[in-house]
Amino acid sequence: MRRDTRQALLQVSAMSGTSVAIVIAGGAxxxxxxxxxxxxxxxxxxxxxxxxxxHMELLGEYPxxxxxxxxxxxxxxxxxxxxxxxGDFFQIHSVRLTAGENPADALLFPGAARHVLPSSxxxxxxxxxxAYRITICPLATPGLCRHAxxxxxxx
Length: 155
Fold this sequence. Notes:
Helix content is 24%, strand content 43%. The protein has 155 residues and is of the alpha+beta class. The protein has a 5-stranded antiparallel beta sheet, with no helix packed on it.
């Protein structure tokens, strides 16, 4: 076999190995992305005539493993309410939000949380007609927090 032909076959063989490695790496990335998607709860706020409910269920019905929940005025950095897990996480389905006073403690399933804000008192206040942003940070995806914007209706 001529030297040029042998060299060309070696290059094709090396390229095939690279293609296989790229396909394997691409498959691993897709599997990792699927795992992140599977473990990351959706966040949406359902607004009714008198209140709103922030839903963060996994697959629409299971409580999610959450590290923190924060509510702030949209565009502001200072939160009006924040709870953080005691330990690794707490589990929660949803949070009911109303114009006026809201309880600082949320209804949790397994796990425990402490309210960071407000730092004292058992209530925090939300105003009707003001845009707010809720942020949840799940346990499984530390760098991937979900955000949703909502406006509470007046009573």
